[in-house]
Structures are given as C-alpha cells and as structure tokens.
Design goal:
CATH superfamily: Cobalamin adenosyltransferase-like
Number of strands: 4
Helix content: 55-70%
Structural class: mainly alpha
Radius of gyration: 19 Å
Distance between the termini: 65 Å
CATH topology: Hypothetical Protein Ta1238, Chain: A
Largest sheet: 2 strands, antiparallel
CATH architecture: Up-down Bundle
Amino acid sequence: MPNRLTKITTRGGDKGETSLGDGTRVAKDDPRIGLLGDVDELNSWIGVVLAHDPGAAVQETLIGVQHDLFDLGGGLCMPGAPLLSEKHVARLDAAAAALNADLAPLKEFILPGGAPLVAWLHAARAVCRRTERAITGLARQSPDAGHALAYLNRLSDFLFIAARAEAKRLGVPETLWRKAHSAASEGATE
C-alpha cells in the first residue's frame, strides 16, 4: 500500500470544516460527519470487545464487522458510493442464527452486566442502535443506504445475542431486570 497519509496534522479543520473523500468541504456538524463519527465509535467499541477475548464464533464475526464498518465509513465519505450490500446483511443473519441456536429462549429482560466482556458487548450494541438511528435519515434520501440501515439493525441484534452467548460461555449469570429492584415497584405516586 502506498503512503496515503504522510501528514496527519493538516490544520484544515481548524475552522469547523472537514473534507469528504471527493474533496467537498462540509461543516463538522454536518449529519454525514456525525454519522461517520458514530460508525468510527462503533468500530472502536467492537475493538474493545475483541480486546477482551470473546469466543471464537463471536471473534470471527466481529473481525469481519470491523472491516465492514471501515468500508461503511469509506462509503459515507464518498457521496453516492454504495453502502454495503445484501451479502453483508446475510452474513450477519447467519452468524446471529448460529449463535442463537445454542441459547435458551429469552424469558426475561436482560440488563447490561454480568462480566466485563458482556457489558462491553451491550455498550457496543447501544452505540450501534444510535448509529442505526443516525443513518435512517440518509436511507430516506439515498437508496444505497438501505443495506447499511439493515446491516446496523442486524448488527445490534448480533451484539445482543453475542452478549448472551458470551455470558453462557463464561459461566456468568445474565443480569435480569427485576421489578422488585425498581422504584416503580414501591408503589410511589406523585
């Protein structure tokens, strides 16, 4: 790979603008730039999960996800570029189904926690949901964004299933929501 970035500090954004991949200058608070930041943050949280040694199936899928998210970011910085494909969505569907096959049916609401790795998966899921909300507007404007929207929806599902699978693999109980622990159960009225 040739040297693409010979200078990281360019000072080009000092006045609140940045460049898209096609050279277009936009404000740093442009929704597309916000979405790029959300995708980058999501990819960083996936990196945190991978740094905590998930099981082989989760690890393999998330390594692919990191590359997919990098591709998504690249597409987002080039207006009109394709944003993922049905193949990306199908791969996540298959990975989620395989992980979910070994899990007990869900009978209670699950809260983040149980073990650090499980909590990190839930944190990544929450960031994924925010990213999904952010891309919804772009999907209304650009038919190319439809697969990216579906991908992020499936990724949040996969991350939830992965959290359950990792809790099982690690032998830690899932943190279940219990009404008795909620202030709502105390019968308080205003």
